[in-house]
Amino acid sequence: MPGPRALLVLLAAAAFLASRAVADPPASERSALLAFLTATPHERRLGWNASTPACTWVGVTCDNANTTVVELRLPGVGLVGAIPPATLGRLTNLRVLSLRSNRILGPVPDDLLRLPGLKSLFLQQNRLSGAIPQGIEGLAGLERLVLSDNNLSGPIPFALNNLTALRVLRLDGNGLSGPIPSISIPGLGVFNVSDNNLNGSIPKSLSGFPADSFAGNQRLCGAPLPPCPFFPPTPAPGMSPGGGGPVPGSSGKKRKLSGAAIAGIVVGAVVAGLLLLLAIVLCAASRRRRRSGAREGPKAATAAASASAAAGAGAARGQPPAAGGDGGGGGMTSSSKEDLGGGASGSAAAVAAAAAGGAAGEQSRLVFVGKGAAGYSFDLEDLLRASAEVLGKGSVGTSYKAVLEEGTTVVVKRLKDVAVARREFDAHMDALGKVEHRNVLPVRAYYFSKDEKLLVYDYLPNGSLSAMLHGSRGSGRTPMDWEARMRSALCAARGLAHLHTAHNLVHGNVKASNVLLRPDADAAALSDFSLHPLFAPSSTRAGGYRAPEVVDTRRLSFKSDVYSLGVLLLELLTGKSPAQASLEGDGTLDLPRWVQSVVREEWTAEVFDVELVRLGASAEEEMVALLQVAMACVATVPDARPDAPDVVRMIEEIGGGHGARTTTEESEGVRGTSEEERSRSGGTPPTAPTP
């Protein structure tokens, strides 16, 4: 017979068990689990039964009070097919989901992206396909994301940066491609993207992880892997990709030559010997002809004069001189011989290029433009030997940070889809090289060949306005304050006004990623200006910054530039990028329309960036005034938009001391000094400037 105390303990335990037996998750969660299991074929019998409490089902874990499902673990139970919609997404309090080692097909389901409290998601060793969805950023509290050993493809989304609580990220064993985004999450302790198809340089923020985290990506380079060399894929004729740096992904092991390779070498040596013998015979025959010609005297002189006259007549008709002969140099100069690697003795490549017209030497040169290029003293081979780091891919090409052996750092932009000929390209670069202004980043040099077009710029280590404004939001970074935003707005407007008034150039691609920051806060610079005439017409360039009237990107105007500047001002005010804004709602809302809709409802305060509000920005009047300027710039009718110099004046009047000019010359360059410039600023300039 138990004592009274023991009896009380037994009664309490019984009451506790009874309460747990009675408590059960809501009917909606039970039905969601049953719907998931019913619609998903599975090989193992799980024994889920509607007549038993859901918290007792295999793989289901509830909270302490048995009132909601917090974990669902079904590893290796033979699940086959896609996760059915409107099932697991209804488990609103789910913290852990593990469906690893099954045969789940299809894309990462949107259903799972509707679980705001999810902490751990384990989907490795399945057959998931498609891209990692951008909506993954909605799982803000996610700490462990494991998608290894699936069939995922496409790029790694930059949106992963918004998962600021992430501790484990494993994406290895998929088919992901493109560069690795600059993921900078302070608490990230495990990171693995090995065995994919990634390329480019590893971001510095991830270089501290071991090399095994990046192995199996043949075109990936940079610490902790070997450094990235900068090699254009197809050098100009006669050029070697000097430097001999390692090609990313190449093996350092010595390989034995096959029998076929040895035979090929032997045959090549025999052929080379025969050619050498033939050359000696030809030289001897040439000497005999010269001796006989010397004996003929007047006849030879007459023949030479006739040949010279014929060559002159051919040149007058636009025909190239005949190749070959002792006197026919084919236009080759001493400098072009050096560029082709022929030197004093010449080479087969140099002779072939000379016979083709002698233009290859020019194509092999790095051409410097503008006064600012005087400080540089490197050539193309120095550039080819430089180690490179991918800075980003834009609408016109990929930008690299190139560190030369001498220590100089420049930015090299590899242009894609250039549609103009060499002469037009040269003339345009010469015009762009004449631009000198503290708020514009000019081209310093360029390279043109059939297969490669490169531009060289100064390197500004402070990064872009876009990275400063949007990078790693919510991860404890210092937000961009109001004064810094006003200075950036003023710098962008001044740089644009200078292009319009002083050089009659349309920028064509004004956006936050093309506003580069300098240590001097008043000297942020517009980059990538006036490149649109080099490309075929496109409707995709400039993205959410493009004016509504722009259909042909080769027919941009000053007014379309002002529209883009207005979108940039709205971006500074709202903290939203046009790309993000266009994805909201039904996918048709762009940033200007969104702002207009909010202001129309008299909720103007809702427009401004929450980071500014959190900083306690006291310049509300200035913010509202800049909003009015921005709305004028994004007017639908082009003629209703102000000119760029007027935008500068309005911003200066708002900001007061946010950025004073330093010289009278700069002031005149921004405002324009003549009626001719003022009238030009309202019209449409030619599609390509006349140098």
From TrEMBL:
Superkingdom to which the source organism belongs: Eukaryota
Signal peptide (residue range): 1-23
Subcellular location: Membrane
Start-end of Low complexity biased regions: 314-323
This protein's record includes keyword Cell wall biogenesis/degradation: no
Membrane-spanning ranges: 260-285
Keywords: ATP-binding, Leucine-rich repeat, Membrane, Nucleotide-binding, Phosphoprotein, Repeat, Signal, Transmembrane, Transmembrane helix
This protein's record includes keyword Signal: yes
Protein name: Protein kinase domain-containing protein
Originating species: Paspalum notatum var. saurae
